[in-house]
Fold this sequence. Notes:
The chain is mainly alpha-helical. The chain has 6 helices and no strands. The longest helix is centred in the middle third of the chain and has 27 residues, at 87-113.
Amino acid sequence: MIETRADCSRCHALCCVVPPFDAVQGFAEDKPAHQACRHLQADFRCSLHEDLPGHGYPGCAAYDCLGAGPQLLRRLPGPPWSVQADPRALFDAFLLQRRVHAQYALVDLALQRLPDDAEGVALKARLVQAAEAGASAIEVGLLEAASRRWLRSLSSRWAAP
């Protein structure tokens, strides 16, 4: 099973560093990718976290890593910023991990309606493996394609008679 709920207390603010912020998407300012938000403190906590919307950051309040940050960090041997000579490898891994978690959340939701669907159960197991092992970009792309195909196949089963 993959935990798909964000837990900021078990993360090192990857979402505050990795993605870009765009003022037109609910952020008080623009921020380029791979650069820490100016409100990120030394302890990896946000100085505005208690009232993000009130400070002009509803996009931060709405963002959900789906548990990808903590899952990725469990695989690292130490604090994330100390183990990577080039943090871009960590950033790329975070984005891939989030894509796996997003697919898992969709497949898991569909399986709540069809818990015995063998293809869906197998796909969910493959997603768990990918999340635990740190799948490559190619593997994640293949899993996303398989998830989309399977989810589309369900529409005929759920269609009204």
